[in-house]
Automatic annotation (TrEMBL):
Protein name: Cytosol non-specific dipeptidase
GO biological process: proteolysis
Pfam families, per database record: M20_dimer (PF07687), Peptidase_M20 (PF01546)
NCBIfam families: aa-his-dipept (TIGR01893)
Organism: Flavobacterium subsaxonicum WB 4.1-42 = DSM 21790
Length: 487
């Protein structure tokens, strides 16, 4: 299986990616991959530094003849999003990613692939290890924890890097050159609630929403994909309004930066409404599936009666507020950019909803390329959840990356791309969170650009990397390194 990947071209890139994918690297648990990269640099006898937060920096001198070129920082993040299908048995903490080739795509068996940002990491490793690739002086920057807070980029101190140009290898369309990105902020609502005795003559059901595409909560937020938490809440709202449904518990979504694919709730209903509840639920499910049939053809909504009726349910007053608040809370695109055509300016992802053991937890990730708009939407969410008595925190705020249309390195990349491909690249800002904006706070004079190979379905088990695109991208990287401007 791994050998199939290792035989792909360019072998230097795919072999390093296979090596990397053998190392478990969940966000906030990067000890093994930090040690792996540190050992890699030291084995090459290159200057290798691990800073106080865990970022790894490896420095390599210029190849002969390119000593007079500007120093380049090659940057990618070490961590990866961990998502798997509900029926996939896999331990991200101990297992390497199981990959396979599917026509022009490299995929993983029921899990995320880690191409985001593993292909960028592998690119840098291949360049560092090479003896025949021409390049200027390099500083390889491998950051940690990009996916759950960008704390690696935030913790990188000024002065550690001397580079003039930063190439971020974390863009996911091979015809795109990134010059800007959105910032983000986590909005978390929490409160406790009392439970009540389950009324007599009650029937219990589990409701399961699954089969959604999921995806990146920035890059895919405009596609009209289903959000399992919003779908579940719609079902609960309808049955509460019509039949007095009561909630036992809810477990929806997973990671803050992934559009939620699944949600499971346990509920009770009075037996006098049992037949009507089943009929109505079938009607609502049919409506939702019809609405989403184009974007979510594999959506499943299952409700099943369970034999053991739980003894406790959620306090009815708190439940009513919760259902109404989640219904009111904005999810999806909030505002499109007025300055860049087709760019999502501001959005929110209701990523996580947990109701269990007397506690409510709602986690959102709000993004925007305009700081004031980001805070405006975050405050709207805060107000919504505070109205039902939640304590709301706004944390992990990170800045966006303001586009620089006069970038010198941008002109270099545009010229090379057009020469290699016979067409102009798509120069754009994106709605994802790249580390460039954060890195720029301590390195304001560094000229930054972002690009990468085509990766689809990032942050979901459908993640896949294009083999032909990787070949195109590798050729692009090599010529960029050979054509860095003089100091």
């Amino acid at each position: 299986m791994s050998q199939e990947i290792r035989n792909l071209e360019p072998k230097a890139l795919w072999n390093k990616f296979a090596d990397l994918n053998e190392v478990p690297r969940p966000s906030k648990k990067e000890e093994r991959v930090i040690a792996f990269i540190k050992g890699f640099g030291e084995k090459l006898n290159l200057e290798t530094i691990v800073d106080e937060v865990g970022n790894v920096i490896i420095k390599k001198p210029a190849t002969p003849g390119l000593e007079n070129r500007k120093t380049v920082v090659l940057q990618s993040h070490l961590d990866m999003v961990h998502q798997k299908n509900g029926d996939t048995v896999f331990d991200f903490d101990t297992q390497g990613i199981e990959m396979y080739v599917d026509a022009d795509w490299v995929r993983a068996k029921g899990t995320t692939l880690g191409a985001d940002n593993g292909l960028g990491v592998a690119t840098i490793m291949a360049v560092l290890e090479s003896t025949d690739i021409k390049h200027p002086a390099l500083e390889a920057l491998f950051t940690i924890d990009e996916e759950t807070g960008m704390t690696g980029a935030m913790g990188l101190k000024g002065g550690l890097l001397k580079g003039d140009i930063l190439l971020n290898l974390d863009t996911e369309e091979d015809d795109e050159i990134g010059i800007g990105c959105a910032g983000g902020i986590d909005v978390t609502a929490e409160r406790e609630y009392n439970t009540e005795d389950t009324p007599e003559n009650s029937a219990a059901y589990t409701i399961t929403v699954k089969g959604l595409n999921g995806g990146h909560s920035g890059m895919d937020i405009h596609k009209g994909l289903g959000n399992a938490n919003k779908i579940m809440n719609r079902l609960l709202f309808d049955s509460f309004e019509n039949f007095g449904l009561q909630i036992v518990e809810i477990n929806g979504g997973s990671l803050r930066n992934a559009i939620p694919r699944e949600s499971v709730a346990t509920v009770i209903i009075s037996t006098i409404f049992d037949e009507a509840f089943v009929f109505d639920m079938q009607q609502v499910i049919g409506e939702i599936k019809a609405e989403l049939k184009t974007m979510e053809p594999n959506l499943e909504i299952i409700f099943e009666k369970i034999d053991v009726v739980p003894q406790k349910v959620m306090d009815l007053g708190v439940q009513e507020g919760l259902i109404r608040a989640i219904y009111a809370a904005h999810n999806g695109v909030y505002r499109m950019s007025a300055d860049i055509s087709g760019l999502v300016e501001t959005s929110n992802n209701i990523a996580r909803v947990i109701v269990k053991d007397g506690k409510i937890y709602i986690g959102c990730l709000t993004r925007s390329s305009v700081e004031s708009s980001k805070i405006d939407l975050a405050d709207a969410l805060r107000a919504t959840f505070e109205l039902i008595g939640c304590e709301v925190t706004q944390s992990g705020s990170y800045p966006g990356w303001t586009p620089n249309v006069d970038s010198a390195i941008l002109e270099v990349l545009k010229d090379i791309y057009e020469k290699q491909n016979g067409e102009k690249p798509n120069v754009a800002a994106c709605h994802a969170g790249l580390e460039c904006g954060i890195l720029g706070t301590n390195y304001p004079d560094m000229d930054m650009i972002s690009f990468g190979p085509t990766i689809k379905g990032a942050h979901s088990p459908d993640e896949r990397a294009s083999i032909s695109s990787a070949q195109k991208y590798w050729k692009f990287v090599l010529e960029i390194l050979e054509n860095i401007p003089v100091k």
